[in-house]
Design goal:
alpha+beta; 5-stranded parallel sheet; about 30% strand
Length: about 375
């Protein structure tokens, strides 16, 4: 590992908001950050030492970008893993490891991994096409997920009856039994190369039913301690089984009869950890850097009650972003605004997030509901 005096060249594949917040933390480590992204106006563009415009899925582009770095990390899973594998073979440190990214890119492989390691998950089938789906006679209702390239709620389709089959994806997919869950929860776990593992406290999430995106998150959870411990142990065991270096977000369902079922994994900083910037002693972004640099992992305890709201583009608006209500909400104690530097808004696009902290959990939630009504992103 090079010394932290600017000679450590770290590359990030993806220049969106996750990369932006990772750079904001990486500045504290004196590392030189390079970013690859296809969007010439990506949020990271003006924050890194070198910004390269190019495809994240093209072998040569990713390989050539990576050759100019000492270490590569990601902020999105849809990247060329073959190029990352070659770079790792040639001595570039790649975290999370290419084999981990390859597995998580494919929801079918994820499900098989859960099954092989006896990690609890919803019953599932792997199918190749819409025709195979129609012939499978899976009991309604169920969820169809594209095996690859689903992101931010896209690539997920609920099949409630035979009438819905006409809108099903005609591609390799995972078909999951519909789970009547009580709550969606998440645990972020980190692991370094010394096999030190830590989990952030379990959080509770609410999703926008139309966009299938997290829009409201509460930390820490007030679920029974036994459930929280079980969720955190599951996350640790998955990190150990993967031998991942870096951060892993583990999204789960809590069923009405108290079961915890694993939904999906994300091998990077995640929407379910944004509150940690103000809400925990160590943020998820600082922890990711500690893990990939093989430094001692930070203190993950919650400092306070924290509620995070995703700031999504309003329906019916598409164009240069206009933020309404920011000045009004900043008059409320404990409100922290994070805008992502995206020039253009569109319906349900993630434009920022707002974290509300308060020593009183109910007050934090009340303030967050108020903020949610006031702030709008229009065009």
């Amino acid at each position: 590992m090079k010394a932290f005096y600017g000679d450590m060249r770290v590359g990030i594949l993806g220049g969106g908001q996750l990369g932006r917040m990772l750079i904001q933390e990486a500045i504290n480590y004196n590392v030189s950050i390079r970013v690859l992204d296809p969007d010439p106006d990506a949020p990271c563009k003006n924050m890194c030492d070198k910004f390269v415009i190019g495809s994240l899925t093209d072998y040569d582009t990713v390989y050539n970008f990576g050759k100019g770095t000492d270490m590569l990390t990601i902020e999105i899973e849809k990247v060329n893993v073959d190029a990352l594998q070659q770079l790792e073979d040639e001595g570039v440190m790649v975290f999370p490891q290419p084999r981990v990214i390859r597995l998580i890119q494919d929801k079918g492989l994820q499900k098989e991994f859960f099954k092989q390691h006896d990690f609890p998950t919803a019953p599932f089938q792997l199918l190749s096409s819409a025709a195979a789906l129609k012939q499978s006679h899976v009991p309604f209702p169920y969820i169809q997920k594209l095996r690859k390239d689903g992101y931010d709620g896209k690539g997920v389709y609920k099949v409630k009856s035979e009438a819905d089959l006409k809108g099903a994806f005609d591609a390799p997919c995972v078909v999951e039994q519909w789970i009547d869950f009580e709550k969606e929860i998440a645990v972020i776990v980190s692991r370094n190369e010394n096999d030190e593992i830590k989990t952030f406290p379990c959080v509770e999430m609410e999703f926008n039913p139309e966009a299938n995106l997290v829009e409201f998150l509460i930390s820490p959870s007030t679920l029974p301690l036994e459930i929280q411990v079980r969720a955190e142990e599951l996350a640790k065991n998955i990190a150990r089984a993967l031998k991942i270096t870096g951060l892993l977000a583990v999204e789960m369902f809590l069923t009405r009869d108290g079961q915890i079922l694993i939904n999906e994994l994300a091998p990077r900083p995640h929407n379910s950890g944004h509150h940690s910037i103000e809400g925990n002693y160590t943020s998820q972004f600082a922890q990711h850097l500690r893990a990939i640099f093989n430094l001692p992992l930070g203190d993950v305890r919650a400092i306070n009650n924290a509620v995070m709201i995703n700031l999504l583009g309003e329906k019916g608006f598409d164009g240069p972003a206009v933020y309404e209500g920011i000045e009004e909400i900043l008059a409320i104690d404990g409100v922290y605004v994070h805008l992502y530097g995206k020039k253009f808004t569109k319906p349900f696009r993630k434009m920022g997030h707002i974290t509300i902290v308060d020593s009183d959990r109910d007050k934090a939630i009340e303030k967050a509901r108020t903020v949610q009504q006031i702030v709008k992103v229009k065009a």
